[in-house]
Amino acid sequence: MSRALSILLKKEIADHIHSWRFNILIALIALTATASMVTVAQTIRDVLSKAANQPFGETFVFLQMLTASNGRLPSFLAFVSFLAPLLGIAMTFDAISSERQKGTLLRLLAQPLYRDDIILAKWLSSLLVITVFFLALGFFVIGLGMFIFGLPPSFEEVLRIVVFLLVTALYVAVWMSLGVLFSLIFRQGATSVLALLAMWLTLTLFYPMIVDVIAPVKQSGTSEEILQSIAWHQGLSRLSPATLYDEATTTLLTPSVRALGPLSLEQLVGAIPAPLPFTESLLLIWPQIVGLIAMSVILFGLSFTLFMRQDIRSTRA
Amino acid sequence: MQETTQQTQLDSPPSTPVIQLANVSKRYGFKTAVDHLNLTIYEGEVFGLLGPNGAGKTTTILMLLGLVEPTEGQAYVLGIDATRNPLKVKERVGYLPDDVGFYEDLTGRENLLLTARLNGLTEEEAAQAVDQLLKRVGLEAAADQKAGTYSRGMRQRLGLADTLIKRPKIIILDEPTLGIDPEGVRDFLALIRTLSQEEGITVLLSSHHLHQVQAICDRVGLFIDGRLLAVGTIADLAQKLFKDAPYQLKVEAEPLGDELLANLMQLPGIASAERISPTSVRLLARENNAPDIAETIFKNGSKLYALESSQFGLDEIYHRFFAGREGT
């Protein structure tokens, strides 16, 4: 890492930690997610005490605590997957445009550093900060769970939760890359944030509906036709990072998920209805993880090229 | 070689070129921002790049820093090709953009410390250099206030300190006096002049404020529509551009009839006359012959109320070269 990059990185991280925007959002996420987890955990505990003879290792209470909902509040997972993109957007939507508008970009560029240092520092600092935040949130929730259940999580549960948190950070990284790109395209922060919110709503809420309309899953016909329609449907859905993230996290936090595509009856015959081991789950979602990495790298690459070519004249009017 | 260095130390005439623009052009689409510019700036001088808004001054400056790539030609700063090796240039050149900005949540001191670190100063060196420079630009009292609370003039002074932190050989100031009150402008320019003299820093500043440039620049370049019209000291320029009549004399007398005017025109050295009002007239002259004019008026029996002589300065240059063009 170059000297300039590490200096800028330190500054950016300090900026994030001190910014109102970041603190408000992490408070929002931490509070809603924890509230949902605690209410769910209480219901789970009641169920547990009634069926005390069940072996704990198999039930994955800590994972249930993150994925189950008591009907009143959405689950911890639902909250995180809905709100995490907001965090990524909030941290990056004006990454470059604010520097440009405040006239600091040109001053920075007049120092002996490469242009890529600036944009890399913006992106990496946000990634580091949110990774730390999600890990902290995860461990806090595990701790709360131990307090409520009165028993420690199994090693596999911890492993699954940590990977889930890292995948969440990766998912936010996709949104951050998009945020950085928009901060380059739009000179005004307000325009950029509106465009990003539109993207967020579209991808998380409307995109699945649009895919349903474009490539509906056939209910009747030959099995081949049905399979083909499912393939189309899934293929299109998976263009959205939200779909990839949902598939990856569901598989990680629900060990009983055995496949993400259609399963034929023949494939199910003779299958033991037991949870998948961690490594198998990981193998199952490997394509999703690679997909998320690819998306964030491509988007970041685009911003990178755009920033290198952009006229750096200050446009403070 | 040794001779040239000695000459530079003696300061007259400066002879080591530190900035060289060789046939540099920059085109944005069909618009030519800078058109085959040739310019050499020597060590230790204060050079004013003078021109109306949109003349291509900022583009030229950005090319010197390697932040904009010239379409044609080469820009050398301290012998380094600025386009190919901008980092080396930026290590040695301080740049104050027009409308400079600072991180508003950081104090003035913290802003400078960041720049110091980016330029590779150790923490200790940085703290010392920042202290010294804050004192120098007169911001010690405000050093620990957030930069967001600074006035325009303070920001500009902080900006100057910011450019000086890397101990530059050259500083480039883009419209440094824009938006500061007249008192502030005078102080700021005096500071630049002192710096250039005491530290031997070469200063390149761009401006469209002619008077300010006139006050501190050793040489100026007139820059219009991407082309350099003339380069030289102010006196040089005046002589070059107004060699037929470098003096202007304003006469107020009563009565000031046509007969008197004809007599005045016959005086040696008078090139032309222009009536301003029934009792006053402006004469352009090759020499300052105010005494002759006074005498002629007395002889004619008129009363002389005012006789003012001035040499052509930048204002006249401005009018002649800028004002006419802006109309077209």
CATH architecture heading of the largest domain in chain B: 3-Layer(aba) Sandwich
Total of DSSP H or I helical runs spanning 4+ residues of chain A: 14
Low-confidence stretches of chain A: none
How are strands sequenced across the largest beta sheet of chain B?
A: 6-7-8-3-9-10
CATH class membership of the largest domain in chain B: Alpha Beta
Structural class, from helix and strand content of chain A? Answer: mainly alpha
Task: Summarize the amount of helix of chain B as a percent range.
Answer: 25-40%
Counted by DSSP, the helix tally of chain B is 12
Number of strands of chain B: 14
Transmembrane segments (chain A): 20-41, 76-97, 118-149, 161-186, 193-210, 285-307
Pfam family, one (chain A): ABC2_membrane_2
Protein name (chain A): ABC-type transport, permease protein
GO cellular component, one term (chain A): plasma membrane
Structure described in brief:
By secondary structure, chain A is mostly helical. Chain A has helices at 3-18, 20-50, 56-59, 61-67, 76-92, 97-102, 104-109, 115-149, 155-185, 189-214, 223-237, 241-253, 265-268, 278-309.
